[in-house]
Amino acid sequence: MFTGRAKQLTIFFGETDQYHHQALYAALLEMLRREGCSGATAIRGIAGFGASTVIHTSAILRLSMDLPVIVTVVDRPERIDRIIEPIRQMAPHALITVAEVEVVQSGAPFREGLPDVKVSEVMRREVVTVHPDSPVTEVVHLLLDKDFTAVPVVDENNHVVGMVSDNDLLQRGGIRVALSLKRAADADFVQELHKSLRDPERKVAEIMTREVTTVPPDMILGKAAKLMVEKHLKRLPVVDKDGKLVGILGRLDILNTIAAVHLPQWHPEAHPAGTPATVADVMSRDVPAVHESATLEEIFHLLVSSSHKRVVVIDDQQRVVGIIADSDLISRVSRENWPGLIEMLVSKVPIEKIGGAARQHVQKLRGRSARELMTRQPITVRQEMPVASALALSAEKRTKRLPVVDAEGRLVGMVGRTEMMRALLG
Q1: pLDDT single digits (tens) 35-88
Q2: Which domains does the chain have, with CATH numbers?
Q3: How far apart are the first and last CA of the chain?
Q4: Which of 166, 168, 164, 188 lies closest to 179 in space, CA to CA?
Q5: Which site from 22, 272, 326, 368 is most exposed, i.e. has the minimal number of CB atoms within 10 Å?
C-alpha cells in the first residue's frame, strides 16, 4: 500500500445481486484482486433501503434475503479511475461513489518475494480457449481483442492439448504481421493481417505448440512463478488432477499480486530495511537510444536490431523524453503508408532496399523525426529503486519494459519484467 493522497471507492448493492451466476460481492472481490488492488472489504448490512424504498432487515420477524452489501476499496487514484468502468459493467444497478481520502498509515510493509498463497487464489477462472479444429483466423481475432498473446487449446472434454501464441502464428501460421502492432488494430489493420495469412483455412491443430507446461491449482504461487521464468513463459494453464482446465495464471496476475501486498510507495529518500535488489542490479546498460531529431532510418535500424523492441528518445542532456515501439510507428503515420512500413518491419531490411509500391510509401516518411513519432513522457524508473517497487509500477502502468534514469532524469539503462521477476524470486 502507500501513504498520502488516495481515493476511496464504495459500491452499494443487494445481497442477491449476481454476476455470471456468482454472488456479485465475490465476483467484485475477485476482479479487484486480479487488478492488483491493495485490498477490498465486503460488508453485509443489518438493515437498509434503496431506490425501492423497501426496508430490508435481518430481524428475525422480517428476515430478508436481500440485505444491503457494501464493498469498499482504498487505493491509488489512477488505479481507482481504471477500475470504475469495469465495475459499472459488472454492477449496472449499484450505487457507486468515489471520494478523495488521505492515507496516514497503510499497515505492514512489503516483504521481498511473493506471498505464501496458492495458484488457485490468483488465477483467472474465466479462460478464453480454442479447439484444435478452430480456424487460425479465430485465434487472430481473439488475440487482437485481448491483453494477452496466447490461448490454451482444449478438446471436447476440456483437456489441455496445446497452446497457440503470437509466435506460433508467425512461425507456423503463415501470418507476416506481428500482433505486437495490435495497438493500431482497427478494420484496416485487421484486413492487413488477413492478407498476410497464406492459408486462412488452416486449423489450430496444425500450428499449435503441443508440449504444454501446466500447473495444479494447489501449487504455491512462488513455485509457479519460478517455473514461468525458467521456461520463458507468460501464461500457465491450471489443470485439475484429471487434466481438465480450471484456470489460467498469467505473468500480469503475478505482478498484480506483488503490487497488492502492502507495497510502500518508493521515494528517493527511502531507506528500505535490508539490502533488497535494485533496478541497477538487473538492468541492461546497452540501450537503443536516439536523439529526438533522429530520422526514421536511424529509428528503424535500432528498432529491428535490438532485443528490447523499442527505442528510447533523449534530448541534448541525455534525459528521457520519449519512447518508440513498432506500434507507435503504425499509429502515427497515415494508413496509406502502412503497407511500406509493415513491409519494413516484416522484412527488417533498410529503407533503400524496399522495392515496388512499398518503397514509394516509405519515401514519404523519410522526413519524419523521433520527436514526431515517439510516445511522450514514458514511464521511467530510478536506478536505485527496489526491484519489487519497479515490478509493481510495471503492473500498475501495464508497461513491459522501462527506461532507467538517474536522479537528473538521464538515461542509464533499460529493465524488463523477466529480469526483475528472476531477481525477486531468487
Answers
A1: 767 778 999 887 766 655 455 555 444 445 568 899 999 987 878 888 999 999
A2: 4-103 (3.30.70.120), 119-260 (3.10.580.10), 279-333+368-425 (3.10.580.10)
A3: 23
A4: 166
A5: 22
